[in-house]
Write a structure and sequence with these properties.
Elements (H helix, E strand, L loop, with lengths): L1 H16 L7 E4 L3 E5 L3 E2 L3 E7 L5 E6 L14 E5 L12 E4 L5 E8 L2 E10 L4 E9 L7 E6 L2 H4 L10 E5 L5 E6 L9 E9 L6 E7 L6 E10 L2 E8 L3 H6 L6 E8 L2 E7 L5 E10 L2 E9 L8 E8 L4 E8 L2 H11 L1 H4 L9 E11 L2 E15 L11 E16 L4 E7 L3 E4 L9 E4 L3 E9 L26 E9 L5 E5 L3 H4 L2 E2 L5 E3 L4 E8 L2 E9 L4
Parallel strand pairs: 7-11
Antiparallel strand pairs: 1-2, 2-36, 3-36, 4-5, 5-6, 8-9, 9-10, 10-11, 12-13, 13-14, 14-15, 16-17, 17-18, 18-19, 20-21, 21-22, 22-23, 24-25, 25-26, 26-27, 26-28, 29-30, 30-31, 31-32, 33-35, 34-35, 35-36
Amino acid sequence: MRLIILIFLSFCFWMISTPNVHAQVVKDYKDISIFMGDKKKSKGYIESFSKTPSGKIICVQNQSNLLNLFSKIKANRSFGYVEDYTLPQTKYLKFYGDGRRTDLASYAILGEHILAVSYRSDFASRNDLLYYHFIDPSSDTRINHGFSIPEDFSRMYKNINISRLILISSEDASYSSIMYLPNTTDAEFTQLNYLLFASNSEVPVLRGINYPYSTNNFNPLDFFIFNPDNQFLIAAHYNDKELAKTKAYEFDEIKITQLKDKELHEWSIREQGIYFSDTKCYPSENGFTIVSLYKYQINGEIQGVLIAKMDKEGNILNKYFTPFNNETLTYIRSATKFNAGFNLDFEPSTHNFKLIDFYAIGDNYYGIIEYKATEYRYGGAAMPNGAGSIDRYYWCNDLIAFGINKRDSTQWFSLIPKLQRTVNDGGYYLSATSYLSDNHLHIFFNDNLSNYNKDGDFIKDENTSELAQFNAVKNTITHVSIDCTNGNVTRKSTIGRYESNIIFTPSLSVPIPERNTLFINGNNLKNYRLGNIFFNKEK
């Protein structure tokens, strides 16, 4: 009887001490406020959120399991608008018309709608048959009519491989494009055919670029659509024979090719003794910016950041190679060797620093670099060339934030220790998200509450920081605030899984600058909360 009473009292204490896991979560801090809506259930897994030109948030849900969110080919998707911090009802599409009995392969934003491509394998020709669809996220119907992609698009290709199909949207989503990247030999040019769609028309226009290089010697990085008569292809090129042979993570040239009024124009970024690694392109109203991490040797450590600003005509307005300072280089060397402490062995292509966010404001450039790695562990008798289980461990570790202004010769680098790892989930809860306010760069990620004191102050360093946790006891969302004028860092813990009963997913966040907020999401299996981080106006 005494044991029963003790169990009952323990249960009552747990009920009193545990927050209402379904109620809204509101927490105010000095410079931010965090709001998360009611905890609800979903029939699918959240794959992505995207903002339309009107400011609406489109949610894409996937019926597959969590790991399949990261496969190249996905089916059974549902599209809808987020309203009142609630996911749209899942409406997994069924195609009819030309696209019946096909699987959805990829999609892109086109105006307030979705441009999607589906495919059906034709075993007789050993080819993939392609169809396009216009999907209205506000529609209540579960069926969608498909249209055959014109034969002229694929006639010259012997075989269409769905994995080499690329969908791109312009920055304002007024145009989208379906492009195919064929495999070509050293003796061939590469014919890049693409269908150009406008948000105010359902009739695509077929275009093509006779790119004077073989796919053995380049990889496309990005494709920009400014208008129907002005597009840019940015590609990584391999002039070094060893790089071309292995298609390594590094490359030694960036080529910018403009297709304007059916004529090709080309520019190049190449420096003797410099190898580029992770490279991203960021469009703006007046052009675009190319940002790349660079090295001095193949498979070496990153040494600095390249920033090249270009206008809509392809002119390179400025080009800066900014080397890291000694403190940052020392930090990079220690970060890339973290695996030694865990007795890990990564292939060079599976671990490196990568650019995860970048902002260009006038002559000021701000960015965030993160160390990422994938580790393969073979279970039991499993061997790389044999049968058995293989576990994939995903790592997202230290951050380097930077601020560069070449006009007044100012620059700073801020080092942010972080240690994260999950297994067999594609790194769904890892990495970080950011928001640029008036004078501060804000960064958020999952962390370990043991890295902070009772006041929420960070008390560890790069050598003592503990591995991020995702349980209710030790999980917390870290808020890093960096002063954009000097790089000074403030790091605090905020709410965690205990308060919200879900796990924050940084990669699904969407900045909404016009509302001074960051749209956020957290989930646990098929339970979710949607919310916002509000940024107080700076004085």
